[in-house]
Amino acid sequence: MTSNFYIIIALSIDKQVNQFLKEFSDIFSDDLIELPPKRNIDHEIKIFDDIISPSQQPFRMSQPELAEL
Hints:
It is a single chain. With 69 residues, the protein is mostly helical. It has a domain at 1-26. Helices cover 41% and strands 0% of the residues. It has helices spanning 2-23, 63-68. The protein is extended, with a radius of gyration of 21 Å. The two termini are 33 Å apart.
């Protein structure tokens, strides 16, 4: 039963993606069917094991902003 549910969701998402691509067809090029070639420089973010990420909000939100979330 659940596998059928996931198939239905996947088909629905596929339709949404196709509609999006049709709507913005002037932006998306058909020529771009693969990733760009590998460059000499790669982006990298080094993450250290002993660093604990902050578990608080980076800034306070007003009550209307919180309600909007």
